[in-house]
Amino acid sequence: MEKNSENLYILRHSTSHIMAQAVQNLFKNAKLAIGPAIDTGFYYDFDIEGHTLTEEDLANIEKEMKRILKDTLTFEKYQIPDVEKQIAEFKAQGEVYKAELLEEHKNDNPTLYLTKDKDGNVLFNDLCSGPHLENSSDIKAFKLLKTAGAYWRGSEKNKMLQRIYATAFWTQKELDDYLNFLEEAAKRDHRKISAKMDLFSIRDEVGSGLVLWHPNLAVVREQIENYWRSEHRRRGYVIVNTPHIAKSKLWDISGHSSHYRENMYFLEDEGTEYVLKPMNCPFHILIYQANRYSYRSLPLRMAELGTVYRRERSGVLSGLTRVTGFTQDDAHVFCTPEQMVDEINAIIDFVDYTLSLFNMKYEVELSTRPESYVGSLENWDRAEEGLKKALESKGLKYDINEGDGAFYGPKIDFKLKDAIGRTWQGATIQLDFNLPERFDIKYQDKDGSMKTPVMLHRVIFGSMERFMGVLIEHYAGAFPAWLAPQQVAIVPISERHNDYAKEVYDKLTANDIRAKLDDRSEGMGYKIREAFQEHKIPYVLVIGDKEMEDGQLSLRIRGIGEAGKIDIDNFIDKLSKNVRTKSQKLEL
Ligand SMILES: [Zn+2]
Ligand SMILES: [Zn+2]
User: Fold this and answer.
1) What is the per-residue burial (b if ≥16 Cβ within 10 Å, else e) of 386-412?
2) Does 109 share its domain with 25?
3) Are 504 and 430 found together in one domain?
4) Residue 411 bears catalytic tag
5) pLDDT tens figures, 423-461
6) Same-domain check for residues 265 and 144
7) Which ligand is nearest the CA of 9, by number?
C-alpha cells in the first residue's frame, strides 16, 4: 500500500484495532463501541465498568500494543455468514454496542475484521466494514494522547463511554513533528496564556460560554474596535446599534422562530414573549425599512458590533473560541443585483486588508446552491458567478463545497491560518435571497418599478471572542505594540529612582502610551523577566543613577534584548509611530 495521506486513514484505523485489542487484553471487561480514523489520528470508545482510564493506563496500553506488534499480524475480512447467530454471540460476550450496530446493519452484508497471527489463530475480531492494512508491518509510529468522555452515539441520553484519542503516522519523524506541534499548540492555549496575563475569565455563577473581559483583554479589543470603526467609515459603511431583545413576532417574520429555535433564549414579560437576539440581521432590515431607496441611493452598507446569544450544548463550549454570548462584527449590505459583484469584491478587499494587519494567511471556500433553496435560479446563478468572479479577479485560490450553501444563498468562508498553521473559522460573506422577501423590502429601479434588493451578510472577525482567542494563540500572547495590553514596563533599579520613574510614567501616559510602573522592591532582573516572559510587555525601560544623570533611558525590547540608551521624547515619537502604523515588528 502506498504510504500517502489518503491511506493514512487506513493505517490509523487499523492501528485502532490494535489499540482495542490491547485494551481488551488488559481490561477483560472492556466493551467495544466504535474506533474511527479522524483528521488528526484516531480514537476508540470503550465501556469499562468500574474503571476510569488514567495516564498510566495509556502508557500500559501503548506497551501492550508494542508487544502485540512484535509479530506481524494480518487483518482479514470475514463475511458474517449468519447475522442472527453473530448478534447472539456479541450479546453473550457482553458486546452490547457491537450487537446494536450489527442489528442495524444486518442487511448491509456486514463483515468482521479478524486480526490473526502467523499461524492463523484469531487474536481479535471487530465488527467493521474496513478497509484495513493487509498486515501490521506498517504500524510503527503511534502515540496514545488523551482520554475523554463520549456518549454512545453522541447522545446525552446514552451511557458515557471512555474515549482514547491517539495518532499514528507512516514514519517516526512525522509522528515526532506532530507531537512537537501539539506541544507548541498547548503552550499557545489561550486559556493558559490568559491565566498568566490576566486576560479573561468564565465563571460558573455567570454561566458557561459567557466571557468576562478583564482590563488587559478589553484594551486589546478596544484597539481592534477602534480600527474597525474608522475603517468601516472609510469604506462607506454606516454604523448602527440595536437592542439585545425583541418580541418573538420579529423572529416569526424572519423565520428564525422555526428553523433556529433550539439555539434561541426566550424571555416572558406580561404575556409577551421576547427573544434574546441570536442575530442582528432582522434589526438592520427594520432600519433599512425606515427609509425609501432608489437604485442610486444603494448600496447601503450597515455595520454593528452586535452582541448575540446562541444556545449551545455546554459540552462544546471552550474558552473564547466556543461561547454562547458573543459580539459579531456584523454588517449587511443592501444592493441591486447589478452592484453585487463590486460589493463582494470590496468585502474581499476589506477582509484581506484586515487580516494582513495581523500577519494572518487564510484559505477560501465557496459553498454553492443546495438541492432545496429559495430565490430565483437566475439570482443564484448570478450570485455564484459573482462570487467566483470576485475571487478570481483577486487571484485567490478557493475550494468549492458543491451544494453546501445555505438554503437562502451561497457563501464564501475564510479560514484563518495561525502562526503554527492551524485553521480557524473566520470571515464569511453570505448572500441572502430569503430575508429581503420575508420582510418585503424594496428599492425603486431605473424604470420606476419597485424591486427587491440583494442582501449580503458579512463578518470579518466573526466574533470578537473567537477572533481574540485565535489572536492570543497566533501571537502566543506576545502582541505587537499597537495591541499589547501594556506597552512599556518602567523598572526603577532602587527606591531612590522611583520619583524619576514616576515622572517618566506620567509622560508616557500623557502621550497615550500604555505604561506600567513596577516600583515593587523586587530585583531588577526578576522584574524584567516577568515583564517579558509572563506579561509579554514589548518594551522595558530601566532607570538607575546613570539614567537619571544623563536623562536617557535604558531600553530593552521583547525578543531582542538590550537596545541601548534613548531619550524619552525620541522614545515616545518612535513608539507612537510604531503603534500608529500597526507594525508587526518591535524594533524602534
Ligand atoms: Zn476496522
Ligand atoms: Zn446577518
Assistant:
1) bbbebbeeeebebeeeeeebbebbbbb
2) yes
3) no
4) yes
5) 899 999 999 988 999 999 999 999 999 999 999 999 999
6) no
7) 1
